[in-house]
Amino acid sequence: MARGKTSFICQNCGSVYARWQGRCDACGEWNTIVEESSTGGIGGGPQRTKRKGKPAALLPLAGESEEAPRIVTGIDEFDRATGGGIVRGSALLVGGDPGIGKSTLLMQVSAALARRKQSVIYVSGEEAVAQVRLRAQRLGAGDTGVMLMAETNVEDILATLDTGRRPDLLVVDSIQTLWTDMAESAPGTVTQVRSSVQAVIRYAKASGAAVILVGHVTKEGQIAGPRVVEHMVDGVLYFEGEAGHHFRILRTVKNRFGPTDEIGVFEMSDIGLREVQNPSELFLGERNSSAPGAAVFAGIEGTRPVLVEIQALVAPTSLGTPRRAVVGWDSARLAMVLAVLEAHCGIRLGQHDVYLNVAGGFRIVEPAADLAVAAALVSSLSGLALPSDSVYFGEISLSGGIRAVAHGGQRLKEAAKLGFRRAVLPAAGLDLPKDMDVAAQAVEALPALVAS
Ligand code: TYD
Ligand code: MG
């Protein structure tokens, strides 16, 4: 092949540059730009031939439509995250840090489907067949009918698939090991990953097999991350967890066939991932309710209420610029809550370090946590513990008002189920059920709450 043009591609986000530079302008990562041959792959290259287009069918928008046919795994937490099962002919991406448990999860999913008489092919480009077998035995999945393939070349994989019966599910672990003859760059680069993934997705659409692709999130940016293929797949799930915690959360960030923001909660054990049916009990498990600085937030993840403890520590600083450290929440939102406390409640924290932690390694994305954060901060500063049977939720506006949040009734129901008797919540927009076991204390503005 004649030497094609080369371009410089960010391995993190896929942006293309004409020359090398140290930092990617698009995603802000350093040292992620690598020179790649632009022959083949998306956008084509010199070998692309001029072809006369052939007319395709034009169809009216109105017409027969049917529910997307789904394959249900029976692992409830996984089915919930995918929006009710894997859609046939679709491509899902499961991303996550190396070692978080992606291969474990997908082997369990494969085994569950095989037990339901679905044919499953697991392509492992990272581990040898013996290793995969060993893990499957540990997971109690050794005797299911899952077929293995230790192959990394896309053409070989597709040729193998063509010789047998179409599988119901094809798992490719991982996209970073795939390579195709169509692209010249090294395996793991953006061009290779994109071209290979595109070939696999084309197979899924043409054959009707569902495909799950595994992608490592890469901190160093040495190999292309899942972000470069996110837009090509039908659904994106991230498998997350804090190092040192057993909890693993499967979070939906994109789903063409269902809701996003759903989560599935698992616990890593020595025999694989266990489903956690009631995450609130788990996250509140080690709670010491008499300590100042802790507030229980009644949150909603997708369709499910989740209660978590928010811990704050406010202490006089010994530094010129006080420290602000946040784990499990947005640091910009903490800055906002601190500013509101200062401007509207007269609580000055300019001479204090502030540490905020969401217990259990959980990560909160809802603004509804503002009120619980404010309560935890004030409690830590004053040294007075909050009532141990109270939950908090509500969004704080810049003017100091407490704004309504959705699903108030559901949050309270979960709180009542776990033995909480009081709830501090927004006065506005309440849709509370009549027969409640929880006493609601509605607040309109933050200063009123701080004073009480
Ligand atoms: P793995 O699925 O290989 O992670 P990934 O594919 O995301 O890189 O899981 C790796 C970790 O999970 C490893 O540190 C060991 C742990 N693990 C268990 O604790 N229990 C188990 O039953 C299995 C299979 C793995
Ligand atoms: Mg793996």
From TrEMBL:
InterPro entries: AAA+_ATPase, DNA_repair_RadA, P-loop_NTPase, RecA_ATP-bd, Ribosomal_Su5_D2-typ_SF, Ribsml_uS5_D2-typ_fold_subgr, Rubredoxin_2. One of its GO terms (cellular component) is cytosol. Residues 353-452 are annotated as: Lon-protease-like. This is DNA repair protein RadA. One of its GO terms (molecular function) is hydrolase activity. The middle region has homology to RecA with ATPase motifs including the RadA KNRFG motif, while the C-terminus is homologous to Lon protease. One of its GO terms (biological process) is recombinational repair. Residues 67-217 form the RecA family profile domain. It holds the Pfam family ChlI. The gene is radA. Keywords: ATP-binding, DNA damage, DNA repair, DNA-binding, Hydrolase, Metal-binding, Nucleotide-binding, Stress response, Zinc, Zinc-finger. Plays a role in repairing double-strand DNA breaks, probably involving stabilizing or processing branched DNA or blocked replication forks. Belongs to the RecA family. RadA subfamily. The keyword ATP-binding applies. A motif (RadA KNRFG motif) lies at residues 254-258. It comes from the Bacteria. The keyword Isomerase does not apply. It comes from Consotaella salsifontis. ATP binds at G96, D97, P98, G99, I100, G101, K102, S103.
